[in-house]
């Protein structure tokens, strides 16, 4: 138990630190890598929180899919220019004001609140969350599930249209 | 049982850092990273709150959908960024400001 | 009963014939404008005959009311009642007859004028309006006709449209009258607020005297001041002489200006003691100032104009001292002799203009250019001198009787013990003294003395100009009024009512007139050198200041002071007021343009500034957009939570 | 558990009937794409007509579905609810879809694009998103539907073939993503507080009632941020002008109506829930009033000096969002009915105006001063636009006036009932801004009718879409003369929210 | 037929406007003929109305037409009902008569319009219908509809067919009047929220009915404008504010100083027929609104603020006249004289005496025809020389004697010479204003006394202009040949002479019109004063 708590805290610290590092790094590439670290540690937290399926999805889709896309994007834009992948910062002050005020407010509010909990019956042993999730997808959440399908299709079309426009007007 | 507050603090941190990245970083792709952070902050919340009612999966389900949406957004967003890049030869946001008064 | 109906119809006919003349004159095409010179006098003749017939036929103490409702508002009626009473029966023939004679005279006088149509139309319209004043039994109707005579006066003064001076004189006359009329209108409003009627039948026969009557009567008197050219609004009348001379005779001597005096007599019961005292003082002051002015004029028509003002002042004084009858008597006599004088002056002008057609810049109206015309213009001279004698108040002429009765009334009014009223009496004596002086001066310069170059080619004007003169002159002799040359009782007193009479006053005033005559003879005739020096000195003055230097004699000096007061102060005040008004108007316009308008523009500008402020968030930078949006949310948050 | 499962599945199959319009639209997306692939995007007409047909079918089934329920029906385990309120909005979306397609038919940018099928598929999906958004009762579906609508819109906004199109698209995307992420964060907190994602359920309200902390307010505000972004209300409005300026005309027309109405629909449902039927510690009425005041003021004042007609219309749409919000602010059934009336009128008017603007755009009239003199050579379309503008400004004899009158009436009665000063201020601001709005609404008519210009190009004759605009304007006039035609209908609707 | 008389009067021109949409722009003659035909039909209808109502008293509303316009269920809050409700009483009748007459004249005057004839006439007809509608509407919403409906055609008529500064003038006009109408709208909303239809007992029916609004019993208890227990907004009652807003709204239209500055610009820039309509009809709408709406609905406030209304009236009289005196432009002079004359309307209205109110209505009518004549006179000259500056002319009477005659009549009629209609109106107003203090104590006598100064100033500026333009030696600055400066032609006679005739007829036989106005005025004063009494001592 204690070890798990330590792992939990370590994961939390890693996630937080890597997020902050994205803020401070000036290299997009490093930024993307930090994000991978951050997301991976979050997926670790997910596992600890009994959300194994979610954690796997997180790793597969995010670190595998999203970030690949991003890194690809970074490479493309970087290559085309031939400039170093350095990001300039602007509006430091504004950003800090905003971030500070959010970060000052939210935890304070969170700590004052008693969240709804219904843990009278703890998770039964051998409770198969993946199985349950599968059933839920096909029953209660079938509509969102289908909508997600359409959403993906539209995203595909949209991305295709945008990118094709990009290739189409290469001559520009 | 893991302390929910801790996860919430982490999510608040991720959220504010995400917002700061969005505003401060000049590169469009970095902004995309910031948005991902925001979404993950929300996901953390959802999963954490789901812990408080362990016999249900509501929060987790939501988080799953959020991840899918994040993918879609990332894909479309990246496509748009690339397109803009083609026209403007830059992904620095403050230089992409032809549309104004 | 049958007879009364006839009277009604006849009155209506007399009233409306001039109106028909007006309409006909308007409708006749320009090509046939000569027709109007025939139609208009004939119609006036008809009106005159009817009036005289009525004058003869209607019993003396009749008060016949013809009720006509004009319109009504709720329970209040606005009537157009016509009342035939002793005053209207006297005034009707007076107005129509003089008008007819002026029509007749104008046929000759206005020959060759291209505005004949308009001229005769307005004469007809004037006569109609004047009859309206005379016949109305309603204060509002009197006011209406009062304004209408003002309008016809405007049109006739400005008859010679091309002459800038006549246009400004016309305007001046109308506006001065309007100022008086505004007062009149306020008086009318006071009467209305207190009685809710305008019928004089009711207003004049109230059982008790109310306090508002003082205010009302004084306001109505304002109208009289304007119309009858009383102090301080008399300066328009001399200017009004820019109009054709027959018009001056009809409107600005005999009838319209006398309408004020008529009105005073008509609404006399409305006047309280306090207001009557004001009337008397104003009248006397006018009489004195105008007489002094008249003594200082060279323009023949202006002398007559000032003399008219002075005589009107006398009449007003008479009303003020409570003797409306005396005023009416003087009004009647004055109408004839002053019309005669004006027409006479007109025929002098006419004759000289014909004779001096070739001479440029020749002012025929300046008495200094005239002289010795008695041989060239015998008829004119004869009639003129009769009328002048009447004006001067020489015994055996009508003017003497009427003026005498006025002085007698003042004499009685001023009482036996010394009071400020004596001053007024003295003033009136002075006026009648000066009257003789300026009359003598005028007559002497025109008809006596050496014959001038200008007079060489002069011939008598045509008969159509002379006949009216003769008729009017004959009406200026004493027997026209009364059998006794020293006592007013005659047809007039039987019609209007008794007049005060005092042998003492009669002899005093007769003596005074003779004394004045002698003085005048001494000054102007016996000491001819003085006249010469006067004439020589005059050549150097075309400015008022220089004019002042000329006068060494006290009377002339006084006269100059009077004129300076007139020109510099009263007229000057009006001018200053007018300038002030115009400049205020300009300031107002400026205010309008820059302050009120620009406040509207300022609002638009502010809206624009606000717009550019809200737009300034829109710099095209997406991150700033996001910042502002999120910051907005946070501000909301703090706004609500804290 | 097992029996429950089969019952659930049975219920789901039954539910499909209720979402037939949505099914049609979803199938339509695929159909259109397939047609596009088959014809290599060459047969424009076929795609257009199929799309029209799909919208018409959706419209018809939406209307027909009305007979299925007399009271609201919960579908898909409480994910969505079929009720009168959403049905009405769905009709509006379908009409807007039809009008957008008709408008696109003659738009040069759309005709020349290589992606016709994709374009129409995106419109279909956006309308589908709007449909789902108004029906959804669950945060998950709200989020998904909103994203469906948003992602379609992002791409649609970039359909211009020029630089600006890409920029607008990017800005829209970034702003939208951030807004929806913030909204999502709000959802997550609300989930934590209530343990449910179904915001129409009694649990949601009860648990919030028992746990009224500032966090509820923060979460509510974050959630609102997403909705306000959809309706382009202050302070979530800055994206609108840039996006409108860049997007093709039919898309602008579409964006100014469909997302806005969908957003206001879900916002209405959400605020009614979060306001806890008036028992909330936090006064959402005040928040929404401030938002409305800000939107109206910012929109109107910024619009004053615009020279680009699209940009001006963007600000106008911001201001109109404020007016729509007034209906929500009232928190009364009348308010919502009047808001619906306002929304319907707004749809008709906005499309009429955009039809006109598109016509002029074709003739290279791209800035407001260049409208000079066009009113005289093209009387009909100018008059149509003019009536549209005065309807937007709210001057009789247009339904715009009636709508404003109704909206203000409900606001007033809300004020009378609650006595909150902010509502009176809202009323005052609303009225004063009506005057301000005239300054810019009449700008184009002013230039086109009163200014003169020498160089008017030869007119393109026969513009069928102008006649369509005429029909819309005629409807607006008709609704002024007989507002009860629509209001009577709205009145009969059973509003259980 | 007699049932729909008023509607036909309103909708004839509007229907014509729709019908004519399909006639090409080039058929100028057709438009002119249709305009005449519309006026002819309206005249016929008017005569028929006179015939129909000859046995009725005009104190109540006649020829009423009532139809449900829309009624919307608001659930617990009641029903919102608007009606198509029109009818005429003495006030409406005189204004409708004026409208029909002026529209005829303006139609003839519009023959000189050359550009964009179709648009012009369509707008003119819509304007025609809207003005008639405003004067007969008895439902506040309907009134407001027509009220607004006038605005936009006017805006375009000035803006498109106006003079060189037309853009500025039209915008100014629009902004002022829109501002005013927003104020009226606020009161409109507040009123219908407060008033219920007494004919329906079982539930609250909010109504726009102007007649119901005048009855204090119809106000819902606790509503904002309830006479007994209305709301307070700041230091004053809501009713006070409502009256003030209405007053400002209508005063802009009237126009009263200091809200008048749109008027000179609009008048100067508008084409002649539009100036005529503007001066003769649109200004009357402001006064009509005060008489029909502001005073009867808020008698308590109106009477307590009468001194203020009268003060504004007197200021307008004097200020307008002073401005007219300083004006160098003929049309501007006439425009300012309108300000001055409409001030009299306010004064008469404020007195709430029978003669004062009769006079106010009479002044509205009389100013309508006189100002129409004056603007036509200005237009005649402008048509010939394109020059309106007074100082650029001199001695015109020698070249254009008939024109001079008509101008003379117009000027003297305007300065209130007896025999012309303006005199009757002004004298009644002054009498009423003066008597008010002793009769009902509303306004002090000094207002009437100061107002008489307006008469003097009126004489001053008109005569001065007359002197400068028509007297003296002939001179014009404009570069046209003197031979082109012809006297009036037949068309001009056909506009000017009827007006001259009307001015004279109504100046000499006022009873013709007073038969219609009197019952209204009496009813108005009685009801206003009674209402005040009942509100103060329930």
Outline:
The complex is a heteropentamer of chains A (172), B (101), C (642), D (497) and E (538). Helices cover 75% and strands 0% of the residues of chain B.
Brief descriptors of the model:
heteropentamer; B: 101 residues; mainly alpha; 3 helices; 75% helix; 0% strand; elongated; E: 538 residues; three-stranded mixed sheet; two-stranded antiparallel sheet; 19 helices; 69% helix; globular
Can you offer a commentary on this structure?
The complex is a heteropentamer of chains A (172), B (101), C (642), D (497) and E (538). Chain B is an all-alpha fold and 101 residues long. Helices cover 75% and strands 0% of the residues of chain B. Chain B has helices at 4-24, 28-51, 58-88. Chain B starts with a helix and ends in a 13-residue tail after the last helix. Chain C has helices at residues 2-27, 33-57, 86-109, 116-135, 139-157, 164-195, 200-203, 212-227, 236-239, 245-254, 256-266, 273-294, 300-320, 324-355, 378-392, 398-414, 420-447, 463-474, 491-496, 503-526, 528-539, 544-550, 554-615, 622-641, and strands spanning 64-66, 69-73, 76-79, 82-84. Chain C has a two-stranded antiparallel sheet. Chain C is globular, with a radius of gyration of 30 Å. In chain C, 56% of the residues are buried. The mean pLDDT of chain D is 87. Chain D has a two-stranded antiparallel ribbon with strand order 1-2. Chain D has helices spanning 2-18, 20-39, 44-65, 84-105, 108-112, 116-135, 139-157, 163-194, 202-209, 214-231, 239-246, 249-274, 284-303, 309-329, 333-362, 374-377, 379-393, 399-418, 421-441, 443-450, 464-481, 484-492, and strands at residues 73-75, 80-82. At the A-B interface, α1, α2, α3, α4 and α5 of A face α1, α2 and α3 of B.
């Amino acid at each position: 138990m204690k070890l798990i708590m330590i792992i939990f805290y370590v994961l939390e610290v890693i996630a937080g630190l890597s997020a902050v590092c994205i803020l401070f790094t000036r290299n997009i590439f490093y930024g993307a890598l930090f994000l991978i670290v951050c997301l991976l540690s979050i997926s670790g937290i997910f596992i600890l929180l009994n959300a194994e399926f979610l954690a796997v999805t997180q790793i597969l889709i995010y670190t595998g899919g999203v970030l690949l896309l991003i890194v690809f994007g970074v490479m493309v834009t970087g290559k085309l220019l031939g400039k170093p992948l350095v990001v300039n910062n602007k509006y430091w002050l504004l950003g800090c004001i905003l971030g500070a005020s959010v970060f000052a407010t939210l935890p304070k509010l969170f700590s004052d609140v008693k969240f709804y909990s219904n843990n009278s019956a703890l998770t039964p042993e051998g409770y198969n969350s993946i199985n349950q999730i599968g059933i839920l997808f096909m029953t209660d959440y079938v509509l969102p599930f289908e909508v997600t399908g359409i959403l993906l299709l539209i995203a595909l079309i949209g991305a295709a249209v945008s990118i094709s426009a990009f290739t189409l007007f290469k001559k520009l | 049982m893991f302390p929910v507050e801790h996860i919430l603090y982490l999510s608040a941190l991720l959220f504010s850092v995400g917002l700061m990245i969005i505003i401060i970083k000049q590169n469009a792709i970095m902004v995309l990273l910031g948005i991902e952070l925001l979404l993950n902050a929300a996901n953390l919340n959802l999963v954490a709150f789901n812990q408080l009612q362990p016999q249900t999966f509501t929060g987790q389900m939501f988080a799953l959908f959020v991840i899918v949406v994040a993918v879609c957004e990332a894909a479309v967003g990246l496509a748009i960024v690339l397109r803009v890049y083609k026209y403007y030869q830059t992904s620095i946001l403050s230089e992409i400001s032809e549309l104004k008064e | 009963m049958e007879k009364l109906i006839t009277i009604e119809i006849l009155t209506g006919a007399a009233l409306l014939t001039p109106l028909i003349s007006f309409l006909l004159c308007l409708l006749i095409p320009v090509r046939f404008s000569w027709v109007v010179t025939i139609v208009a006098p004939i119609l006036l003749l008809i009106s005159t005959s009817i009036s005289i017939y009525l004058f003869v036929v209607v019993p003396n103490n009749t008060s016949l009311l013809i009720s006509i409702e004009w319109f009504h508002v709720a329970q209040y009626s606005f009537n157009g009642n016509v009342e035939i009473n002793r005053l209207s029966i006297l005034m009707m023939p007076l107005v129509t007859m003089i008008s007819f004679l002026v029509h007749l005279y104008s046929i000759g006088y206005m020959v060759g004028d291209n505005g004949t149509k308009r001229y005769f139309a307005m004469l007809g319209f004037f006569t109609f309006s004047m009859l309206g004043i005379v016949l109305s039994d309603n204060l509002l109707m009197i006011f209406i006709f009062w304004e209408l005579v003002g309008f016809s006066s405007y049109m006739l003064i400005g008859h010679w449209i091309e002459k800038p001076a006549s246009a400004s004189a016309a305007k001046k006359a109308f506006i001065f009258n309007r100022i008086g009329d505004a007062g009149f209108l306020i008086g009318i409003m006071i009467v209305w607020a207190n009685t809710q009627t305008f019928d004089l039948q009711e207003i004049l026969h109230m059982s008790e005297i109310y306090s508002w009557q003082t205010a009302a009567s004084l306001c109505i008197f304002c109208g009289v001041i304007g119309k009858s050219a009383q102090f301080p609004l008399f300066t328009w009348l001399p200017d009004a002489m820019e109009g054709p001379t027959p018009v001056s005779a009809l409107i600005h001597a005999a009838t319209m200006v006398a309408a004020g005096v008529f009105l005073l007599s008509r609404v006399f019961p409305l006047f309280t003691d306090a207001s009557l005292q004001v009337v008397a003082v104003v009248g006397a002051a006018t009489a004195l100032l105008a007489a002094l002015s008249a003594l200082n004029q060279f323009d023949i028509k202006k002398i007559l104009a000032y003399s008219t003002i002075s005589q009107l002042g006398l009449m007003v004084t008479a009303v003020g001292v409570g003797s409306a009858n005396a005023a009416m008597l003087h009004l009647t006599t004055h109408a004839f002799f002053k019309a005669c004088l004006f027409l006479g002056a007109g025929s002098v002008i006419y004759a000289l203009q014909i004779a001096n057609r070739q001479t440029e810049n020749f002012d025929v109206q300046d008495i200094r250019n005239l002289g010795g015309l008695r041989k060239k213009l015998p008829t004119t001279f004869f009639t003129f001198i009769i009328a002048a004698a009447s004006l001067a108040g020489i015994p055996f002429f009508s003017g003497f009787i009427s003026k005498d009765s006025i002085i007698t009334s003042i004499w009685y009014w001023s009482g036996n013990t010394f009071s400020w009223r004596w001053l007024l009496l003295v003033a009136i004596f002075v006026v009648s003294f000066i009257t003789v002086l300026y009359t003598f001066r005028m007559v002497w310069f025109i008809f006596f003395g050496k014959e001038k170059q200008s007079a060489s080619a002069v011939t008598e004007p045509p008969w159509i100009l002379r006949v009216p003169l003769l008729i009017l002159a004959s009406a200026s002799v004493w027997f026209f009024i009364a059998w006794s040359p020293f006592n007013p009782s005659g047809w007039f007193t039987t019609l209007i009512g008794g007049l005060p009479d005092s042998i003492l006053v009669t002899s005093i005033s007769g003596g005074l007139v003779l004394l004045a005559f002698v003085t005048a003879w001494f000054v102007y005739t016996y000491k001819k050198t003085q006249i010469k020096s006067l004439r020589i000195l005059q050549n150097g003055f075309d400015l008022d200041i220089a004019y002042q230097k000329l006068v060494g004699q006290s009377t002339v000096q006084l006269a100059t002071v009077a004129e300076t007061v007139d020109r510099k102060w009263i007229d000057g005040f009006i001018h200053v007021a007018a300038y002030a008004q115009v400049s205020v108007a300009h300031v107002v316009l400026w205010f309008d343009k820059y302050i009120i308008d620009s406040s509207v523009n300022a609002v638009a500008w502010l809206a624009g500034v606000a717009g550019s402020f809200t737009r300034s968030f829109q710099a095209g930078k997406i991150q700033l957009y996001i910042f502002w949006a999120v910051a907005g949310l946070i501000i909301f948050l703090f706004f609500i939570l804290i | 558990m097992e029996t429950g499962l089969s019952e659930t599945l049975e219920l789901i199959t039954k539910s499909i009937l209720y979402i037939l319009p949505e099914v049609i639209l979803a199938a339509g997306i695929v159909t259109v794409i397939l047609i596009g692939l088959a014809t290599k995007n060459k047969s424009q007409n076929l795609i257009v007509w199929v799309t029209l047909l799909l919208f018409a079918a959706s419209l018809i089934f939406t209307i027909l579905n009305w007979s299925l329920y007399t009271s609201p029906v919960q579908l898909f385990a409480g994910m969505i609810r079929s009720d009168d309120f959403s049905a009405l909005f769905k009709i509006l979306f379908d009409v807007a879809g039809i009008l957008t397609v008709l408008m696109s038919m003659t738009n040069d940018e759309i005709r020349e694009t290589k992606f016709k099928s994709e374009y129409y598929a995106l419109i279909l999906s956006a309308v589908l998103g709007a449909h789902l958004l108004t029906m959804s009762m669950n945060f998950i579906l709200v989020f998904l539907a909103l994203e469906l609508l948003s992602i379609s819109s992002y791409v649609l906004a970039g359909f211009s073939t020029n630089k600006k199109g890409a920029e607008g698209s990017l800005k829209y995307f970034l702003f939208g993503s951030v807004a929806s992420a913030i909204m999502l964060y709000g959802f997550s907190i609300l989930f934590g507080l209530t343990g449910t994602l179904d915001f129409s359920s009694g649990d949601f309200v009860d648990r919030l009632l028992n746990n009224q902390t500032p966090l509820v307010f923060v979460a509510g505000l974050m959630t609102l941020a997403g909705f306000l972004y959809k309706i382009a209300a202050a302070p979530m409005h800055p994206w609108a002008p840039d996006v409108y300026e860049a997007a093709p005309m039919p898309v602008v027309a579409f964006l100014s109506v469909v997302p806005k109405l969908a957003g206001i629909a879900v916002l209405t449902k959400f605020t009614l829930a979060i306001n806890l039927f008036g028992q909330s510690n936090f006064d959402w009425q005040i928040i929404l009033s401030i938002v409305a005041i800000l939107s109206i003021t910012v929109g109107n004042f910024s619009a004053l000096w615009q020279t680009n007609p699209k940009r001006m219309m963007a600000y106008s749409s911001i201001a109109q969002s404020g007016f729509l919000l007034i209906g929500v602010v009232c928190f009364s059934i009348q308010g919502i009915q009047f808001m619906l009336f306002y929304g319907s009128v707004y749809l008709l008017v906005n499309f009429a105006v955009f039809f006109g603007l598109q016509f002029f755009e074709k003739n290279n009239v791209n800035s407001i001063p260049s409208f000079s003199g066009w009113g005289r050579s093209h009387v009909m379309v100018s008059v149509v636009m003019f009536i549209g503008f005065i309807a937007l400004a709210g001057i009789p004899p247009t339904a715009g006036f009636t709508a404003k009158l109704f909206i203000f009436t409900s606001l007033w009665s809300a004020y009378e009932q609650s006595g909150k000063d902010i509502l009176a201020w809202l009323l005052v601001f609303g009225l004063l801004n009506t005057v301000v709005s005239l300054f810019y609404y009449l700008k184009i008519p002013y230039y086109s009718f009163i200014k003169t210009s020498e160089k008017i190009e030869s007119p393109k004759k026969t513009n069928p879409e102008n006649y369509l605009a005429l029909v819309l304007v005629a409807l607006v006039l008709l609704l002024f003369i007989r507002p009860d035609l629509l209001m009577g209908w709205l009145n009969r609707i059973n509003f259980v929210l | 037929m007699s049932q729909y008389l008023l509607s036909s009067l309103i909708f004839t021109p509007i229907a014509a406007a729709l019908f004519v949409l399909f006639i090409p722009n080039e058929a100028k003659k057709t438009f002119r003929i249709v305009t005449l035909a519309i006026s002819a039909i309206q005249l016929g209808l008017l005569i028929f109305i006179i015939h129909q109502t000859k046995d009725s008293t005009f104190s109540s509303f006649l020829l009423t037409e009532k139809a449900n316009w829309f009624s919307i269920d608001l659930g617990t809050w009641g029903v919102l009902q608007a009606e198509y409700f029109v009818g005429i009483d003495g006030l409406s009748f005189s204004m409708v008569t004026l409208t029909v007459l002026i529209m005829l004249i303006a139609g003839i005057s519009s023959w000189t319009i050359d550009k964009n004839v179709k648009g012009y006439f369509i707008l003119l007809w819509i304007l025609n219908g809207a003005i008639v509608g405003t004067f007969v509407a008895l439902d506040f919403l309907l009134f407001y509809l027509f009220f607004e409906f006038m605005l936009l055609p006017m805006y375009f008529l000035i803006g498109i067919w106006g003079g060189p500064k037309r853009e500025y003038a039209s915008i100014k006009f629009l902004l002022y009047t829109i501002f005013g109408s927003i104020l009226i709208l606020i009161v409109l909303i507040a009123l219908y929220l407060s008033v219920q239809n007494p004919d329906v007992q079982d539930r609250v029916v909010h109504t726009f009915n102007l007649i119901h609004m005048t009855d204090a019993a119809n106000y819902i208890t606790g509503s904002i404008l309830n006479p007994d227990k209305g709301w307070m907004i700041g230091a004053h009652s809501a009713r006070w504010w409502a009256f003030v807003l209405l007053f400002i709204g209508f005063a802009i239209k009237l126009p009263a100083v200091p809200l008048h500055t749109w008027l000179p610009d609009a008048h100067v820039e508008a084409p002649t027929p539009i100036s005529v309509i503007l001066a003769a009809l649109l200004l009357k709408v402001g006064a009509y609104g005060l008489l029909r709406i502001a005073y009867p609905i808020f008698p308590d406030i109106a009477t307590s603020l009468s001194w203020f209304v009268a003060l504004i009236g007197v200021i307008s009289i004097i200020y307008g006249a002073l401005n007219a005196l300083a004006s160098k432009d003929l049309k501007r002079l006439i425009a300012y004289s309108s300000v001055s004359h409409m001030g009299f309307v306010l004064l008469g209205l404020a007195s709430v005496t029978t003669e004062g109110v009769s006079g106010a209505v009479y002044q509205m009518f009389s100013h309508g025809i006189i100002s129409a004549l004056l603007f036509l006179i200005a237009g005649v000259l402008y048509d010939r020389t394109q020059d309106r500056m007074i100082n650029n002319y001199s001695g015109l009477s020698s070249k254009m004697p008939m024109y001079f005659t008509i101008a003379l009549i117009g000027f003297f009629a305007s300065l209130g010479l007896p025999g012309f209609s303006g005199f009757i109106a002004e004298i009644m107003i002054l009498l009423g204003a003066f008597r008010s203090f002793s009769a009902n104590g509303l306004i002090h006598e000094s207002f009437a006394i100061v107002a008489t100064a307006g008469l003097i100033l009126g004489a001053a500026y008109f005569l001065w202009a007359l002197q400068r333009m028509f007297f003296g030696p002939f001179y014009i600055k404009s570069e046209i040949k003197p031979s082109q400066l012809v006297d009036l032609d037949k068309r001009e006679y056909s506009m000017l002479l009827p007006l001259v005739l009307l001015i004279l007829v109504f100046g000499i036989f006022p009873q013709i019109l007073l038969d219609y106005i009197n019952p209204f005025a009496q009813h108005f004063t009685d009801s206003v004063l009674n209402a005040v009494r009942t509100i103060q001592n329930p």
